[in-house]
Design brief:
This protein has 218 residues and is mainly α. It is built from 10 helices and no strands. Helix 2 runs parallel beside helix 10 and helix 4 runs parallel beside helix 6. It is globular and about 45 Å long. The protein starts with a helix and ends with a helix. The model has no long low-confidence stretch (mean pLDDT 92).
Length: 218
């Protein structure tokens, strides 16, 4: 079994909690209150600014040029492609454009600083594991929703289609491959740190959606 499969098995109870949480359940049914989705979009746009820079920084640390280029592309995708989708959502859902500069609320602040500190101070293998849940969990949740939703006019269908789509899936598979290769080459001690980082980031994914549902602020 690959390292990423083992890590995914480790967080299965948490992933089930994610699928059961009100934010995901109501997003799937198209009944998520607009104010909660607006809060999520505002914070996610801020998160992606930082996440994109973390990915690009990690690319600069990769000794393999192909891996470096892929992580630069991952960062570009977070900063440009997904940001453009959010800007279209801002118009569609009546979110002021200047709200993209809103303060980082507690969970978003915690998450981005966890990723930044991990990328800066821990081995690259650990940083690779830390950024992976944002790839994998979004893909899994997108696939779950697309396979179980029954409402054709779901107002959040563009968000769902983005993360269940083939283009995003290609990036996920590349990221999984790089993490598995890194895990194979490193030590048991580093693999333990990798798993700790992966679990922490997975918890932050849950907390991020939960904070949006409850509109958690400072």
């Amino acid at each position: 079994m690959t390292w990423t499969n083992q890590a995914w098995q480790t967080i299965q109870p948490l992933y089930q909690e994610i699928l059961d949480m009100p934010f995901i359940h109501e997003l799937k049914n198209g009944t998520l209150p607009l104010a909660k989705f607006q809060f999520y979009m505002q914070q996610d746009a801020r998160y992606l600014e930082h996440y994109g820079r973390v990915l690009a920084y990690m690319g600069s640390k990769c000794t393999d040029n192909d891996q470096a280029l892929d992580f630069f592309d991952f960062g570009k995708n977070a900063l440009i492609v997904e940001r453009a989708l959010h800007e279209s959502y801002f118009t569609q859902f009546g979110i002021p454009k200047d709200s993209v500069t809103a303060d980082l609320e507690p969970v978003c602040h915690h998450y981005v600083h966890f990723l930044k500190s991990t990328a800066a101070f821990d081995p690259l293998e650990v940083a690779l594991a830390a950024v992976l849940p944002c790839f994998v969990i979004y893909k899994e949740v997108g696939d779950y929703i697309i396979s179980t939703q029954t409402r054709a006019d779901n107002p959040y269908k563009n968000w769902i289609n983005t993360y269940s789509g083939p283009e995003f899936g290609i990036g996920v598979q590349k990221a999984l491959g790089y993490v598995n290769a890194a895990a194979e080459r490193t030590t048991d001690a580093i693999r333990k740190q990798m798993l700790d980082a992966y679990v922490t980031a997975s918890r932050m994914e849950f907390k991020f959606w939960d904070a949006a549902y409850n509109k958690t602020t400072w």
